[in-house]
Structure formats: C-alpha cells, structure tokens
Design goal:
Elements lengths: L1 H13 L1 H15 L4 H22 L20 H17 L2 H30 L1 H9 L6 H10 L2 H5 L4 H5 L11
Helix pairs in contact: 1-5, 3-4, 4-5, 5-6
Length: about 180
C-alpha cells in the first residue's frame, strides 16, 4: 500500500503543473468566497509569494547549492511559499473539502518532488549537500523557530543594564548639580 501511494505521489509530482491546474479548476467550482474569506486568505497568499520571491533570489540552479537566505531556514522555501499561498487560496474558497484535498495533494506532490530533488542534489554536490541536510530541516522550519525562541531569556533581559544604572538615579540629583 505504501509503495502504491509513493507511485501515485511520483506521478503527481512529475505532472504537478497539470495537476495544479486541475485542482485549481476544482477549487474554482467548489469555492464559495465571501469578502471576509478573501480578506483572511489574501495575507497568506501575499506571504507565500513574498517567500517565493525571496527564495528565487538565492537560486543559481545547477550552478551552486543554495544555503543562505531562506535556504538557511529550510531546504525547500519555494515549496513552503507554495504551501502558504495554497492555504490562503483554500481559506478564500471557504469549503472544508478544499482544505482536505489541498493537504492531501500538496503532501503527495511535494513529498515525491522533494525526494527526487534531494537525490539529484546529493549526486551533484555530495558531501556538501549531506552537511546541508544535517544542518537545515527539509520542510517546514518549525524546529528552527523553536531554537530561536529558546535563546531568549526573560531573566537575562531583566538583568540588562538600564539608563539609570549608567548615569545614576535621576531623583538623586540636586538642583545645584545641574
């Protein structure tokens, strides 16, 4: 069964443009947008597109391994952007079945696509890619966000020097000291 799902994912991944157009047509047919659903979905679409634009600026396809910018946070920022954009469109459509189908197809399509890309990158960049894989999560960067969040310590911030520590307590100044 797992092999069969993998085969379906590979077929969908290799034909992801056509599949995306078909899903877009189904989305158009099933959606019931309202002003509110569009207002809720648009920020996700814009965020996803912004991530895609940011990511595209770091790619030198088939020339070098992208490891900086958004590629330092996740190995697949373009697909992360696609996912966020797709989620925004699903929210705009206001149909629960769309959410289900979006996540199923997104997972099937991009899982196999990412596996093929990683095999190609591993063959091309070898040890450098292996080090990158060990250092940067595949998708999404949630464990990176956890590391960032865990670095902040409220008690350390509370112990930081204040302006009054540097110049003294302003209430202790006498008028003749001025």
């Amino acid at each position: 069964m797992k092999n069969r799902i993998g085969e379906v994912g590979t077929i969908l991944g290799r034909n992801r443009i056509v599949v995306s157009l078909l899903i877009g047509g189904a989305f158009w047919f099933l959606s019931k947008p309202t002003f509110l659903s569009i207002a809720v979905g648009v920020p996700f679409v814009l965020l996803g597109e912004a991530i895609r634009i940011w990511s595209s600026g770091y790619i030198r396809k088939n020339e070098e391994l992208a490891t900086t910018g958004p590629y330092a946070l996740t190995r697949n920022p373009l697909y992360l952007g696609n996912g966020i954009m797709g989620f925004g469109f699903v929210l705009m459509g206001r149909d629960l079945s769309l959410i289900f189908f979006f996540f199923v197809f997104f997972t099937l399509i991009y899982r196999s696509t990412i596996q093929r890309e990683e095999a190609r990158l591993s063959a091309k960049f070898g040890e450098r890619f292996a080090e990158y894989v060990a250092a940067v999560p595949r998708f999404p960067p949630l464990d990176r966000l956890e590391k960032v969040r865990n670095r902040f310590r409220l008690e350390t911030g509370a112990e930081a020097p204040r302006a009054s520590d540097l110049v003294g307590d302003p209430s202790s100044f006498a008028a003749d000291d001025l």
